[in-house]
Amino acid sequence: MFGRLPAISRRAIRTGNWLAPEASADFYRLRRCAVGLCVAAAIAPVAAQAHDSHHRSAGPLEIVDGKYSPVSWAGIAGWNNDNHLDAFKAFRASCRAVTVRRITAVSQKALGATLWEPCRAAKTANISDDAKAKAFFENHFRAVRISRLGETDGFVTGYYEPIIDGSRARTDVYTVPVYRRPSNLFVRGFTQSAPSLPNSGPVYRKIGRRKLVPYYDRAEIEDGAIEGRGLEICWLKSQTDLLFTQIQGSARVRLEDGSTLRINYDSYNGYPYTAVGRILIERSIVPKDQMSMQRIRQWMNENPDGAKELRRQNRSYVFFHEVKLSDNDEAIGAQGLPLTPGRSIAVDKSLHVYGTPFFIEGELPIESEQAKTPFHRLMIAQDTGSAIVGPARADLYFGAGSEAGRVSGRLRHHMHFVMLVPNSLDPVARARTMPLPQTRPSARIAKLFPPKDQKPANTPHTSAPSSFPAGEQAGAAPTPAAKAAPSNATPLPSARPEVRSMHNRRHRTHYRRRWHRWAR
């Protein structure tokens, strides 16, 4: 439901779409085969666009666990009314990272390395107005409507950068520490001094030189498992402030001397995130239609004892590091670039490449909780989160401050997703090469050997069909076999001769030989 900002290259865990059902293991085994079949129905309207002579195909488009269908630009609601120049500026900012750190062609992500070509064009393009920006996207991309297999729409939530009060030193008011990464935190395959660690998977702590055990969970850390080690970056007023800072992944801490301390996600303790909002709904404490970040905070402030127990249901714990950003700088996303409010989104990094444009359309409660504000906007993937999972799943970044928090905290909505695919990828190629299942052998045999009582195909029907066999219809006398009409059906093969078991023959021979030896 809410999200967190990363440090330089990772984002913290996020509540995510806790309403979405999880697919079974069998479903995931079959999802690759279903992708191509989902494309075929929507190919016709945009066939000319998909196979334009100027498009050089680098290979088929494949979205794991997703279905997609090409769509024309005119078929995208709100496409002509968006501010494409703002989207182009965010896209060109992402291109700086794409061209410097080029993705290998063997990437398993949907777009692979194909963003490099439109990024190279964006770098040299002279675009200063909306019309040119719109033409750039239409000339270098194809539009593909996407969703998760079995679903028709995508799902969006919102996140922001909170501004909270804090202190560099512990006082009677500021008693909750914000910890940096402990030195005994260990992730397999990474050094303990690595600048960034995965935001998913197991995390351990070392005991001695070799023994590894799971790291402390939230309850153990809150009870003082790592205090006194000099890990404190700053101090906050409450555990609730810390929890929401961890959910968002970054914060601006206003210190007592008037300066601002910027902290970003660094690592976590290895436990999966448990959405506290979902627990409140399951316990019938907060109705589902009233759930928001503000509602969670209100309940926690009114029920301090219950808030402690609720927090500890979420065993995940986030560690931070300090970043050197001014008050005018936006938070840094997982791509390593400043985020753009209203244009940056967090996506599933295992499926999508940073810099991918997505057009998201629908209605969102932006102006108020009950409002249905039309939202038709081209967004750029520049961030990620471990709770952001799926091909059509996004977290919209709204900036910093309380107003951005109010808006982002209300978002839990289904929206239409259109992904912009570079021209070098063919969105219909996979459908053309998708093998169809072979005809069932039983059907083939039935054609060769139809039942004896089945009428030939060229025999006209003289009566209504009946479920009774020929000659046994109600009120009809049996037809003698000698007078029965000859059948043109292919005769069935004769029954196989009965073969005596070789085991029995050997058994009898064995005793016959024993009897002859005894008779002698």
UniProtKB/TrEMBL annotation:
Comp. bias (Polar residues): 456-466
Ranges of residues in domain Lytic transglycosylase MltA: 163-321
Biased composition range(s): Basic residues: 502-520
Keywords per UniProt: Cell wall biogenesis/degradation, Lyase
Entries under Pfam families matching the protein: 3D, MltA
GO cellular component, one term: outer membrane
Protein's recorded name: peptidoglycan lytic exotransglycosylase
Provenance organism: Nitrobacter vulgaris
Classification of source organism: Bacteria, Pseudomonadati, Pseudomonadota, Alphaproteobacteria, Hyphomicrobiales
